[in-house]
Amino acid sequence: MKTGIIFIMAALALSVGCSQPPKTSGTMEQSDKPAYALVIHGGAGTIRRENMTPEMETAYLTALNTALDIGEKILQDGGSSMDAVEAVIVFLEDTPLFNAGRGAVFTNTGKNELDASIMHGADLDAGAVGGVTIVKNPIRLARAVMEKSPHVMLSGPGAETFAIEQGIDTVSPEYFFTQDRWESLQRAKERENQSTGSLFPADYTNKFGTVGCVALDKNGDIVAGTSTGGMTNKRYGRIGDTPIIGGGNYANNATCGVSGTGHGEFFIRYTVAHDVSALMEYKGLSLAEAADLVVHKKLKDAGGEGGLIALDKNGNVAMPFNSDGMYRGYAKPGQREVAIYKD
Amino acid sequence: MKTGIIFIMAALALSVGCSQPPKTSGTMEQSDKPAYALVIHGGAGTIRRENMTPEMETAYLTALNTALDIGEKILQDGGSSMDAVEAVIVFLEDTPLFNAGRGAVFTNTGKNELDASIMHGADLDAGAVGGVTIVKNPIRLARAVMEKSPHVMLSGPGAETFAIEQGIDTVSPEYFFTQDRWESLQRAKERENQSTGSLFPADYTNKFGTVGCVALDKNGDIVAGTSTGGMTNKRYGRIGDTPIIGGGNYANNATCGVSGTGHGEFFIRYTVAHDVSALMEYKGLSLAEAADLVVHKKLKDAGGEGGLIALDKNGNVAMPFNSDGMYRGYAKPGQREVAIYKD
């Protein structure tokens, strides 16, 4: 695992759109549209090889591969991108390795407040939830908001009431507890006590994480979903970019689907997910060009750390990030890659 | 007041950018940039002349003119668009005529849950609050989130804790009570009881409203602010487009500032405010072209009722809406218009 990158089918991997250099505006990287495409992330941030044990590395790569297996099976069997995205994110939420669902980071008051959203590129329908504390899989609730309510975004206890009425699985808040995240909160509080007395974290290193999935099915439907526990030690009912349609999540069959991960405030201010789509639709950029411009130029210049996963209507995939690492992977018929680090 | 439109300076009114037909892509409607520009709205919806008394019409038009007076004074004196937008929205929030601050509509449980956001086009900085119940002027809290926290969006009780810590005026929830809105809730509940038993309103007629202001100051800074009480009889902690940066509110000095009002779910799904900006920036549309395309084509085709106010970096103003009416107005040096109906 020295490279941190598994090439399941090395010969094919070189043809991946996301690793190609930008091309002339308006061109598409791939003309042979695959039967399906699937791309995932498990968060971006200060993820360095020197801080990782071989066991942890294997655990992350195995989880990413399992997530791709789950989504790929659904798409191969002719299932919808909606079902694939939901199932993949449910798995990532249930896996304590990632900051979403079980394994979510703790707020300042020792709670787990979860955000999620899902968007359907066919009709721009969307559902989002913010600040839920007892919903086992926030992505399921986001989908229920989209399908079973006339609303897009529900929040807090009201969203939980809706979850219960809809028969969405709820759990005791302790379900989300993981020792590792609890210790992160204690460390964050210690740093805070030693600092200037500011009520806000002085730096965001390792304080954020998200999971996301974008899928294209045989019908050409693009769905994007994102789920998170937010920032360690967050206060004041802070809501990040994950449930903000156009910020951390967006899908449009005419262009692409995008799921973001990183310092959420920048993703909101730069309307990152919709900006990638708008650059393709209005300026004629390719997916790779649009995604690179947003992540490596706009966000980077602003100091916004993070990355995104995206795929376009032709099945091209992009996974740019400007942080040290991003847990990520994609699958298409005969192609798969999972990766963690930059190199 | 037969026309519902006051031409304060009739001779100049014909030169307003927003009333001109769309021109060739990429052109700007007005080359003489004014020293300042200010545009406001007090909500769009089923606002018909036949349902309005002369007294109510006068009250609305007077309030719109007073709001413009407040903002114009600040801008004329060399104040910032940030201060102008905040002061105008504070006035509109304090005026019970509009669904924001005092005069906000009631939720299903008889509460007033307020949302607001503000965005600074100079650096794309932004602040937003969702679901606050004791903050007298949510727009002030949104500005404090932007200026005094590293976050963009705070929600619920956490946002209220932040308000108290920042010395933002809080009030007893009864402050927001108005008899008129209370009766609207009772009527909505009666209709609900007589209907199919759905927990969601069958139609949205007269159920939404918002206030907004966009200003351009002498430094070329564009600021957009929006504030609302949301939908009558809303449930489940529903959050609309008002605090969604890129949805109901957006500002970018390079393009324009936008504040939306209408059926918020559509404004979120169509990322309305950022879309107007992206159409200008990436496709070269004028403000009027971009705003008209989004309101009269995209939103209308989707069934999304509402409108928006916008101004661009050259001081052009647009106020399109696809509903029966929109409380609206604008002011520039030597020009002013306030209006309610379509004709």
What does this structure look like?
Two copies of one chain form a homodimer. The first copy, chain A, is α+β, with helices and mostly antiparallel strands. The first copy, chain A, has a single domain, classed as Glutamine Phosphoribosylpyrophosphate, subunit 1, domain 1. Helices cover 33% and strands 23% of the residues of chain A. In chain A, strands 1-14-13-2-6-7-3-4-5 form a nine-stranded mixed beta sheet. In chain A, strands 9-10-11-12 form a four-stranded antiparallel beta sheet. In chain A, strand 6 (211-216) and strand 7 form a beta hairpin. In chain A, helix 2 runs antiparallel to helix 3 (81-94), helix 3 runs antiparallel to helix 4 and helix 8 packs across helix 9 (287-302). The longest helix of chain A has 23 residues, at 54-76. Chain A starts with a strand and ends with a strand. Residues 1-28 and 202-206 of chain A have low confidence and may be disordered. At the A-B interface, strand 4, strand 5, helix 5, strand 8 and helix 7 of A face strand 4, strand 5, helix 5, strand 8 and helix 7 of B. Strand 5 (153-155) of chain A pairs antiparallel with strand 8 of chain B.
What's the helix and strand layout?
The structure is a homodimer of 343-residue chains.
Chain A: E1 5-7, H1 10-13, E2 37-45, H2 54-76, H3 81-94, E3 114-120, E4 125-132, H4 138-148, E5 153-155, H5 156-165, H6 179-194, E6 211-216, E7 222-228, E8 238-239, E9 249-251, E10 256-262, H7 264-269, H8 272-283, H9 287-302, E11 306-312, E12 317-318, E13 325-332, E14 335-341
Parallel strand pairs in A: 4-5
Antiparallel strand pairs in A: 1-14, 2-6, 2-13, 3-4, 3-7, 6-7, 9-10, 10-11, 11-12, 13-14
Helix pairs in contact in A: 2-3, 3-4, 8-9
